[in-house]
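Journal club prep, shared notes

We agreed each person brings one worked example of a sequence with its structure written out as tokens. Mine is SnoaL-like domain-containing protein. I'm keeping it raw so we can talk through how to read the token line rather than staring at a rendered picture. Sequence first:
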Amino acid sequence: MTTSKLSLDERVRLLEDRAEITQSLVDYGELLDTRDLDAWAELWAEDGEFEMSTGRVARGRAAIKDMLASVMAKNPPAVVHMEMNPRITLDGDTASSTMLYGVGRTQDDGLTRVVWFGHHHSRHVRTPDGWKIQYRRNTVDLPETGHP
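Then the structure, token by token:
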């Protein structure tokens, strides 16, 4: 998008939109790490859809939260999500984004390792409560041994 023909107000709005979406992308991992699934679920649109790298799909904020709760119950508590390199494309009241992520966790031997890298492919929508994730598909690009 060329911004040279936009007014100052329009440019500021684009910057604010990009900042809000970027913050939600960063909050996504931190809220998972602190296991605050109530706040994490608020990042999603009510009718959002989440497609995990395993192929599991949940539709609707409550179902998405329930699906993640079942996944998190199986994970050790010492998990760290690293969210990196956001690429955001704005289009009025919708946006798309791709973001690299890595997951680190403490292994049985007591050492902490990065266990996989992947991408979040997302669509976002502006709501009265701010930008929300409308759709997300996770891919795992460099899996750990045995990761589905």
